[in-house]
């Protein structure tokens, strides 16, 4: 990550960060692992109810 910009708001410094190209791959890997975990732990009955309600 790197500092993207800074600005003063109500007499306080606000610092905004941006994700660098070097940080994008590790972040994507972590996000994919979290998604796999969430999907693996999801209750199949909840999925069936959700599908039935959206039809």
From TrEMBL:
Domain of life, per lineage: Bacteria
UniProt-recorded name of the protein: Uncharacterized protein
């Amino acid at each position: 990550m790197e500092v993207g910009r800074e600005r003063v708001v109500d007499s306080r410094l606000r610092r905004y960060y941006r994700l660098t190209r070097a940080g994008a791959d590790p972040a994507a890997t972590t996000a994919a692992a979290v998604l796999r975990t969430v999907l693996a732990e999801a209750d199949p009955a909840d999925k069936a109810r959700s599908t039935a309600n959206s039809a």
